[in-house]
Amino acid sequence: MSVLSHDAILKAFQTKEIVITPLNENAVGPASVDLSLDNEFRIFKNKDCPMDIKESTNYREETDVITIKDGEYFEVQPHTTCLGITRETVTLNDIYNGTAQYKGIFEHNYL
Question: Which SUPFAM superfamilies match (predicted)?
Answer without folding.
Answer: dUTPase-like
